[in-house]
Amino acid sequence: MRVALRGSDDVPMPRNDTPGRRPRLALFPLPPVSRFDVGVAAVTGVAAGATAAGRRLVALGKPLAETLVLSPPLVPESLQPRRLVELLALRGSQQRQDLTREIGAVLDRMVPAVADELLRRVDLDAVIARLDMAKLAEDVIASVDLPEIIRESTSAVSSETVREVRMRGISGDEAVGRAMERLRPRRRGAPTHDQR
What we know:
The chain has helices at 32-70, 81-121, 124-130, 133-144, 146-183, and strands at residues 5-6, 12-13, 15-16, 24-25. It is mainly alpha-helical.
């Protein structure tokens, strides 16, 4: 007995009811969107499988193809396709280098001429007049951190000055010590500053 049930998309769903058995769903027609989705899934699955298989075949066949096609065993070395490919690659490399050199020479001649013409046509006074010099100066000073530079330079100068004063003080102390040694009466057994 077949009973048509209504689903959310109003497609009849056939049922297969056999007496004494639990009812089960039979095959029923899918809505058109579902058929499209199934078709897309099938096609993409087949395409992915074919792509993977093709990659494997290429990976396996590449060394064999290179050996048989580019370096056939019975063809002399000078006539082998591999030799022709190498010569074409060498010629292409030389042509690329020549072209790079020629383009560089053209640019070396053209860029100064274009720059001169551009500078001749541009009114630099008008460009400078449009600049806000006060704002530009503020931005430069803010980015430079002028107070930190002044602190560092002042501390470097003051530390050098202190070091110089200390060194002069030490040499002055030594000079005073030598003068005092000369002025003091000497004892015969006592060593002098220079004898130590």
